[in-house]
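pls design
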């Protein structure tokens, strides 16, 4: 588990009086699980959505279907839209999203297994995404993506 980085995220949020929301696809709720495993997380964690299917990304997070059609579900623009949707719909101050191909199948030459996009949206500071490439099993990719998402929150809040 990513206990140390979870506690860092929580401390940074608590110091600012901010709340976090998550929008997870390829990590399947792993980040939410890690956050809620820590006592007191309700102080800083607003909640999240596991939007695995494209229709769920649209219905739960407001990701435009046209955006998914244009860029694909596994893309920076969709990761950013997921994070913005979680931020707005859950009334948070910061949101993180994950979308990717955990494998072992589903990859292509253009979008191979292990490709993950992580989005980070801050109510006071815009939105960005980052592309990642992870190796390993399905579970290994999910754990690496979850860890990277938490670290992206820490680095995003460190510059705030």
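designed seq:
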């Amino acid at each position: 588990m990513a206990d140390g980085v979870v506690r860092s995220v929580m401390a940074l949020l608590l110091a600012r009086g901010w709340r976090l929301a998550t929008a997870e696809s390829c990590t399947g709720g792993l980040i939410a699980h890690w956050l809620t495993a820590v006592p007191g997380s309700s102080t800083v964690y607003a909640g999240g959505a596991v939007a695995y299917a494209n229709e769920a990304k649209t219905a739960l997070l407001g990701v435009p279907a046209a955006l998914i059609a244009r860029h694909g579900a596994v893309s920076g623009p969709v990761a950013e839209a997921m994070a913005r949707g979680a931020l707005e719909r859950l009334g948070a101050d910061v949101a993180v999203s994950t979308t990717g191909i955990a494998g072992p199948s589903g990859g292509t030459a253009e979008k191979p297994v292990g490709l993950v996009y992580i989005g980070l949206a801050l109510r006071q500071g815009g939105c960005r995404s980052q592309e990642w490439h992870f190796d390993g099993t399905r579970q290994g990719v999910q754990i690496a993506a979850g860890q990277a998402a938490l670290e992206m929150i820490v680095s995003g809040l460190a510059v705030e």
